[in-house]
Amino acid sequence: MPAQATEPMVKLVVPISQRPNDLGDLGEGRRRVVLERLQPEIDAGRYAIKRTPGEPVLVEVDAFADGHDILSAVVRYRREGAPAWSESPMEALLNDRWRGSFTVDVIGRYTYTVMAWVDHFKTWDHQLQRRIEAGQDVRVDLLIGADLVADAAAHAPDDAAIRLRSYEAALRDGDQSAAFAPGLVSLMTVHAPRHYATVYERELTVVVDPALARFSSWYELFPRSASPDPARHGTFRDVINRLPYVADLGFDVLYLTPIHPIGTTFRKGKDNAPSAQPGEPGSPYAIGSAEGGHLALHPELGSLEDFRELVRVAREQYGIEVALDNAFQCSPDHPYVSTHPEWFRARPDGSIQYAENPPKKYQDIYPFDFETRDWQGLWYELKHSFDYWIEQGVKVFRVDNPHTKSFRFWEWCIDAIKAVHPEVIFLSESFTRPKVMYGLAKLGFTQSYTYFTWRTSKWELTQYMTELTQSEVKEFFRPNFWPNTHDILTPQFYAGHRGTFYARAALAATLAASWGMYGPAYELLEHMPVQGREEYRNNEKYEQRTWNLDDSRSIRGFIAALNRARRENEALQFNESIRFHRVENNYIENEQIIAYSKHSPDMSNIVLVVISLDPLNTQSGWVELPLEDWGLSGPVQVHDQIRDMRYIWSDGFNYVELNPYITPVHVFRIRRRVRDERGFEFYS
Fold this sequence. Notes:
Elements: E1 34-39, E2 49-51, E3 56-64, E4 71-79, E5 86-89, E6 91-92, E7 97-103, E8 108-118, H1 120-133, H2 139-155, H3 158-172, H4 176-179, H5 182-191, E9 198-199, E10 204-208, E11 216-221, H6 236-249, E12 253-256, H7 304-318, E13 321-326, E14 329-330, H8 335-339, E15 355-357, E16 360-362, E17 366-367, H9 375-391, E18 396-400, H10 407-420, E19 425-429, H11 434-443, E20 447-448, H12 458-470, E21 480-481, H13 498-511, E22 514-518, H14 556-568, E23 579-581, E24 583-585, E25 588-589, E26 593-599, E27 606-612, E28 619-625, E29 636-640, E30 645-649, E31 652-658, E32 665-671, E33 673-675, E34 681-683
């Protein structure tokens, strides 16, 4: 039978000269690891996350590859301008999720990303162990491992290379124990080449602000009302004399409303009356007169030397930073109106458009037109205002209504300033829609006012804090809680109940790591509104006030105790660890008592806060105390930081009773029971 013909073999490989060049567009095709869903990453890396020195950055990513090889991954990070990357190893979690972290040390900017690769040595090591356990011949496998070690030796410095070659020789000699030697594993972790590693597609940014950005206590006052003499305008010297009072209250930021000359044209009168009476000072937010504009001082406040002395004394003697109120708007008398009319919007009749929120009219204020043809000149001039006051020693700014100015301007301005002065802090006063409020934080504002002022029920407070601390928002938005401002007096205060002032201050000071209040109105229990508006009657914004700081109604001692508790308990200096606890009455949640805890990063300091939201009635309930979750065993001592009282509590539920006419607040420090070397027990 004749032999059947066979078909010739077909060459399947396309000659190099005939290959299309589209694969070159893919880069290194041998990179097998896929990296996805890196966090934290704000808007695909468009914006930075925020930290303060000593805070960790926890990074997670999905990392996987084809096949069954073992992966390795690291977080790579470096300070801006550093020539080389530092690395921190990542660990595998569940479902191909990986986690690692690094700590930022100094203010400025850091960059971070993730690198992952197929780790051939770890894969070989794991498979070798399984083969040995199965009783298989591993002589060839040891040679494979020797080749991997030799490759690492070729890339290692001399001293490490010598040690690696000794392990290589042992493997080639068939020494199985060498494969699992801790020394070899350590050397390979450092020196094994990362062939075809995948690096995340973007380098992301961390802005590192001073510690005051994370933890701060703000006190607002009107400098013109600092005089003890009702017949005299307050001065910077009067504010210097007020510093011991502010320091005794425990505040570390003194925020001054605008200190510039005030216009006379269309000047507003008492409680925002359309026109002022003779002698009425007008609103300090109507900035600018013949004496000057945003770089000038109101002549009755004092000289520039007086202001510099205030900044110096506050910082050096009391540890207080002076914050200036930045309001980018002008009175009709501001020099800009005549020298740069193009920076304002003209009406058809030739007049300049004043500020409006129909039907409200603010004829004493001209807003800047950010669509002006000379927008670049406007931007540079406004930034120069910040630069000037920074030269005078100011490091903290409260920015009035930034949501009514160009977002692109803010991003450019803040970025340019912090590139030179990374220590500067910007507080955004923007009571507006959530996306706008968060957008300003992304653009660079260090801290932000919040909706806390209007969150009054237990459910509202719980939901809001959960949003701020358990979502992506926590990475870029630092809340600053204020129970009141000079512009805002909310309805819960109108009845003047002392318990309301206690509770709202305690909520602000313990829910958020940064808080502030407008004084002396707050500690003196001012509560009368303008009819139909959430504003103070006899508002300092439109008149000079004289305050009796020694008034018997004052709750200054309570405010001082709150701030002392914040300073002495690290748990209250962060937001992310907050946890809410059940408060029950007859197995039903008591909606009039809110309880929550915070702990320091190392769990050495744990604080439990219990507050009654009822300003009229005594409230009681059983508060959940999850000792096991905190790594504690009962009983424990709970030490009230406000009233310096101590109680012994156990795991589970413990009884509280809060009287609004005494102190409707507990700020408990949890102290564990310990025994000394002599057998004596005490709580620490």
